[in-house]
What we know:
Blueprint: H1 4-25, E1 45-56, E2 60-71, H2 74-94, E3 102-112, E4 117-128, H3 134-143, E5 148-155, H4 159-184, E6 188-197, E7 201-204, E8 210-211, E9 230-243
Antiparallel strand pairs: 1-9, 2-4, 2-5, 3-4, 5-8, 6-9, 7-9
Helix pairs in contact: 2-3
Amino acid sequence: MPDARQLVTTAAVAVLAIAGYQALHGTSSAPAAAAPKAGGMLQPFMRFTGSGSVTMRPDQGTISFSTHGTGATLVAAQSQAGQAMRTLIRALRADGVARSDMRTDAVSGSARPRTGDFAADQSLSVTVRDLKHTGKLLADGAAAGAYSVYGIDFSLGNQHAAYASALRSAVRDARSKADAVAAAAGLRVTGVVSVNETQQQVYQDYGRLAAAAAPGAVQSAIVPVKHGTQKVTAQVTVVFAYAS
């Protein structure tokens, strides 16, 4: 006579066999889990890339000045370069440059084996908020004893606003393409499924202005500066839903 454990095992095997038969032959009363509902069908879509740009005049710029010093020791060379830098900073401050718009970029010094002395350099980065003073700053920096001048690198103070405008233009471009294709196919765009952006780009249609002056110059003509324009571009890929 079989014991209780054998009876339980036999019953379990029978239940599993019945369930397997129902699954194979579709006799189960439960709905199939994989059967898609009418509203769950994939939505038709079309994908287009749109480009947009905005051209603006720059409203700020950056100039890099450097001073130079030589001496029998590195201390002497740095002292000479530092004195020249202090004179330069005073001249820039007199031209209205705020202290917060001046930043030391580098300080260097080394021996010069060929001449048996030392040379030192210091560089200063200046942000120009009022571009109409750019030429005067370049000239006055050279006159104050700058060893070299590099710039000016123009830029947009509110880069975010310019890029947002370019993005809107790019989305409109993608939508116009979608509308044209949908109309040609007898369809209509019903909505936006997704929008992806690519990295923004900024183009400038002018070269950098470089100037140099020998230390000790007492006066310098105002440097002619052209601001030019900057073009900010954006590109997006938009997926649109459509219907007949």
